[in-house]
Amino acid sequence: MSPDGGHLRSFPLTLATKGQRLLVAALAAEKRLTKRLGDLGLRRGTEIEVVHCRGDGSLVVLRHNARLALGMQTASGILVTAVDAPAPGGIPATGE
Fold this sequence. Notes:
By secondary structure, this protein is α+β, with helices and mostly antiparallel strands. The protein has one domain (11-82): Ferrous iron transport protein A (FeoA) (SH3 type barrels, Roll). Helix content is 15%, strand content 32%. It has two helices and six strands. The protein has a six-stranded antiparallel sheet with strand order 1-6-2-3-4-5. A hairpin with a 5-residue loop joins β3 (47-53) and β4 (59-63). The radius of gyration is 14 Å and the shape is globular. 18% of the residues are buried.
């Protein structure tokens, strides 16, 4: 169990590192931007991988086979959690 009582801690996407696999936990953006991100496939529960980070907070993420470039302001409104390493047998760990 994690120190916060079993709940995964979320953090802004701008703090992610290259190669990190993440789950979108929440979108903390205005309604119009949230809809646009959803149209691009970035919704709560979506798994993404960071493929490129810049020092200014902008980055490129991979969602399925699509790469999405996100500016620092947009990325800072996307809260994510780290994806656990798969358990033996290829079944993802649930943490429960």
